[in-house]
Amino acid sequence: MDLPTAWNLDDKSTYLSVDSSGLRVNYEGPGMPGHTGAIRANNPIPPQCKMFYFEIDIIDEGKDKWIGIGFCEKWVNLNGRMPGWDDGSWGYHGDDGNFYCCSGSGSPYGPLFSTGDTIGCCLNFKNNTVFFTKNGINLGIAFRNLKGTLYPCVGIRSQGGSIEVNFGSRKFKYAGNAE
């Protein structure tokens, strides 16, 4: 069972660069509408693992704070749209605090996030729910009826934007029970 361990360098938008560790992503695009860069992890989340959690450190929110964290199917286009805006894609966005579920219209969910924050995402295949955390605090269930072959993903459309993922190679900020 291969778990996500890094970003997939061959499965990303041309607007993004990834450092040699495979964990840090920088936005290189113009920051205009239609110029979102997204990237998927190197492996899907195996549902048989029952629960999967990862965290994203916001290294630099960039000019407009347009960063989305979530998960998506393999076939979702990574050029031009944020996580959650397309069918087969879900995401929590830092600029408005909304959760997007396969649609360009979000639902109010949690606080805004920016430089210095750590956002976590937990996919619970035991009860088919998803929750996010901010700086170690559980924000509550964002989504129910989880299904599909899902990959962790992140989208950025903010000049100077930079994030780093933790798939478990170091201690998580969130220490709570993922139930």
Automatic annotation (TrEMBL):
It holds the Pfam family SPRY. It comes from the Eukaryota. Residues 1-172 form the B30.2/SPRY domain. PROSITE patterns: B302_SPRY. PANTHER family: RAN BINDING PROTEIN 9-RELATED. This is SPRY-domain-containing protein. It comes from Gigaspora margarita.
